[in-house]
Amino acid sequence: MNIQVNQLGYTPAMRKVAIMRGALNSELLVKNAAGETVLTVPVSTERTQLWGDDVVTADFSALTRPGTYTLECGSESSYPFVIAEKPYTACLTALVDMLYYQRCGDDLKPEAGCFAHPACHTGLARVYGTDEFVEANGGWHDAGDYGRYIVPAAKTVADMLLAYEWNKDAFVPGLTDLINEARWELQWMLKLQRADGGVYHKVSCAGFCGMIMPHEEKEELILSPVSTTATGDFAACMAMAARTYADIDSAFAAQMKEAAIRAWDFLENSEPILFRNPEGIRTGGYGDRSDADERLWAAIELARTCGEPYLTAAEVKLAAMDRHAAPLGWGDMRGYCAIEGLALPGEAGQRCRRWVLREAENLLKRLNLYGISMTEHLHWGSNMDVANQGMMLMQAFRLTGEVKYRIAAEKQLHYLLGVNPLSYCYVSGFGSQPMCRPHHRPSVAQGVCQPGMLSGGPCSGLADAVAKEHLQGQPAGKCFVDDHGSYSTNEICIYWNSPLIALVAALDK
Ligand SMILES: [Zn+2]
Fold first, then answer.
1. 439 is catalytic
2. Which of 64, 182, 321, 484 is least enclosed by beta carbons within 10 angstroms?
C-alpha cells in the first residue's frame, strides 16, 4: 500500500494525516462506502526522504462524519478505515485478553478456542543450586516462550494499573477483565518473595522448549536467584497495586502492602545484586546495569502508599536522578518514577512534573514524518518504545491540557495500527494487513495466530537468522519480517501489549 492510514480508523476529533509515496496527484480524494467522493484535500508539496521512500502527507482531518472510507490519490488507494466515536474498543479488549491467553498454571476455558489448554507448569520449582522446592504456579508466560520473570511482570502490571487509573471506563470485558487479570499476575508475584523479603528474579525451565503448547513443556522448573532489580520492581508494583485494590479487596491490598515493605527492608540492607543467568540457565536474562531506578521507583510508590519514612527516601533519591531521561522500560524504570512521583507533595512532585514535561518535549523534537521519535536505530521491541512514548506524551497532555502532546500520542497509535512504511497493523487479528506469523509457541503449535498481540516490530540490528536473510540493506523502519523465525522483529510480549493498553485507554477519553 502506498497510502498509509490507521487501519482501525479514527475518532471524529482526531487529527488525520495520510502518509503517501509513489506517483501521486496533487489532490487526495476521500471516498465513502458507496464510492462517492465526500472530501477532496490538497497533498502537501513538501517531499521528505525517509526510510528509502519519497514521502508526502495529506491532512484529511475535515472528515468527521462516522462511516467507512478509503483514500484515493492518482492510481493509489488506502485500506478502508472507519470514523467512529469508539474505534478501538474491540482491539483494547483483545489486548487485555492476550494476557489471559498467556496464563500459566490455569485451565484456560473453552472460549479460548484452540488456545485452551490444561494447567501448565504446575510442578514445584527448585531453588537454583539447592534441594529446596517452592510452589510458584501462576502468572503469565512472558512472551513467545514460557518463562515467567518478575522484572517485565512489574512493568506490565504497572502499565495496566496506570491504564485503569487513567480511564477505567475504556474497558469492555472479554475473556477476562483488566482488574482480575492484573490480580492473576500479582498473586503469582507474591509467591516469588522469600521470607527475608528478597524476590527471586524468575522461574523457568533451564532452557527454551520447542514450538509446543505450554502444558507439553515438562522439564523441571527452577527459581533463579534473588536480584535487587526484581526486588525493587516488586516493591514498587506491590505498593502501587495496594492503592488500586484498596477499595476492591482490602485484604489483598493489605497483603501486597506488607510484601512491598518487606521487599523494601531487604533492599535497604542489600548491596546491588544485578542479575545474570547462572550457569546452566539459558532463558531470558532481563539483566540490568543499575538498580538505582528500581530503588527510586520503590521509594516513590511506598511514599504514596505509606508516607514516611519512604517519602524522605524518595526525595533524596529523586534529587539525584531527575536530570536524566524517563523511559518506561523493563530495565529502566525512570519513566514510572517520573509519572508516579507526580503525586508526591511539594518539591518532589514539582521535580517529577518538570521531568515528565522535559521527556515529552524531547520526544516531540525527534518525531519523524511517520510520527515516531526513532529514525536511525529501531531497537528490539521498537513497537514497545513507540507505545511507551505514546504513554509519556499522554501523561504530558493530562498534566497540561496542551493538544500538541495528545496529537503526538495519537501518532504513536496510528503508526502501530497502519501508518508505517510496511503498512502493517502490528496487532494480530486487527486491520486489513495484520501481523499474522509471530514468534509465539502456541500460535506456531496450533497453526493459528492468537489475536490481540502487539508485534515487537522493526529491529534494525538484524538480530536473528531470518532477519539477516530477508532484511539486509533495508532502512531501519522496514527491518521487519512477518515470520515465526524472526524473534528479533516479530516476537510478542506481555510488556509490549501493556503500554498499548495504557495508550489506547488514555486516548479513549
Ligand atoms: Zn505455563
1. yes
2. 64
